[in-house]
Amino acid sequence: MDRFLLDDEVRTRLDLVSGSTNYSIVLRNSEHFARYIFGGRWISTQLLPGEAIHDMFAHNMPQSASALINTVLPCELERLSVIKPMYKLQKSFVDYEKGNSSTDLNREDAFNILMLGPTGCGKSHLINLLFNKTVAKSAARVRSVTEHVTIYSGIANIYREPRFVNLIDTIGFCDTQLTPTQVQRMIRESVKNNFIYLDKIVFLCSGRIEPGHKSAIQKFMEWFKYHAYGNNFVLVYGRCDGLSQEDRQQGIMDACSVLGFTSNQQRIIKPDLVPSRVLSDEKEIQIISFQIATAFPPGAPYSAISTDLYALVDAVFTPYYAAGEPVRIPARKEECLIL
Ligand SMILES: Nc1nc2c(ncn2[C@@H]2O[C@H](COP(=O)(O)OP(=O)(O)OP(=O)(O)O)[C@@H](O)[C@H]2O)c(=O)[nH]1
Ligand SMILES: [Mg+2]
């Protein structure tokens, strides 16, 4: 039996959940209830494929119901958080519309980006920078701050077209309440239940890449077929605060070699298609890199982060086309055999 501290957060959750009704073995069972009180997550590991409850009900569940499993906090437990602009005088690349635990499966045309990385590497912070708003909870903590896989949506200009964009924020790989395998499976299930295709997979890492991070990243590379869809992957070597250009380059190269990424992936595109031109009128940039080093210290002035932000926007929002057609990574079971 695990013991944990009855602190103010736990007390608040106990208050919020006491007297709840609408028990549901799939969406609101006693494991959801207990884990919520313990750590704020509305998840049940018994709903992962291969587990008893999942296998009992999976066949009879419509996709719209599967999409809610292990992602949704019952509405009566949601606490309002205030969304604030990050850089008041600056434009945002993606205009924020909503944050959700599931998505509209019929929006096949949406540009879908999966953000992955170890706990605390800055996934949610990057998402906030792309919206220029504090849409996702981001903070320094030992356990993952992002409690559920959450989809933040908005509109962005991609190749001169306004597109609906889904940025998928995920639980960090090294959570203290879930095993690495449970985290990976939660993310995989959520992606599978909510998306038919992914357009970009962004791995974020920083500092020394621990063996646990490496194996988690490689698992996702395998599931989403890096060998076939390598051009849809982006590697961000983050938290490069104060590093020289050479050290940043070295960091990227080391990360690529540890993870098995092809290094120096670059593409030349027409200047008027460069995504970051929405934010800045620079005309010369034409070479887009898909392995980038960034430093986004919280509270830094815009001038200190703008170059890295433009590089991030370009890497993440430059779609990959082959023979005139967009290349998309299949995310669903029937599309992707390994899933
Ligand atoms: N100095 C510095 N801090 C950063 C950078 N990127 C993010 N941070 C900070 O690091 C902390 C963790 O960032 P998050 O965005 O919450 O990280 P995460 O990957 O979403 O973490 P989990 O949700 O816990 O998995 C926050 O306080 C961020 O402001 C960076 O480039 N430099
Ligand atoms: Mg997070």
How are the SSEs ordered, and which strands pair?
Elements: H1 8-17, H2 30-39, H3 52-57, H4 63-66, E1 95-100, E2 111-116, H5 123-131, E3 150-158, E4 161-169, H6 180-194, E5 197-198, E6 200-206, H7 211-223, H8 226-229, E7 233-238, H9 245-259, E8 266-268, E9 287-289, E10 291-293, H10 302-317, E11 321-322, E12 325-326, E13 329-330
Parallel strand pairs: 2-4, 2-6, 6-7, 7-10
Antiparallel strand pairs: 1-3, 3-4, 5-13, 8-9, 11-12
The protein binds guanosine-5'-triphosphate (GTP) and magnesium ion.
Guanosine-5'-triphosphate (GTP) binds near residues 120, 125, 172, 296 and 297.
Q: Report the average pLDDT across residues.
A: 88
Order the strands across the largest sheet as they lie in space: 1-3-4-2-6-7-10
Alpha-beta classification? alpha/beta
Strand content: 15-25%
Which ligands accompany this protein? guanosine-5'-triphosphate, magnesium ion
Task: Indicate the CATH topology of the largest domain.
Answer: Rossmann fold
Q: Kindly state the number of beta strands.
A: 13
Ends distance: 33 Å
Number of domains: 2
Shape field: globular
- Poorly predicted segments: 335-339
Give, in order, the helices and strands: HHHHEEHEEHEEHHEHEEEHEEE
| Helix proportion range | 25-40%
Q: Please name the CATH architecture of the largest domain.
A: 3-Layer(aba) Sandwich
Largest sheet, in brief, is: 7 strands, mixed
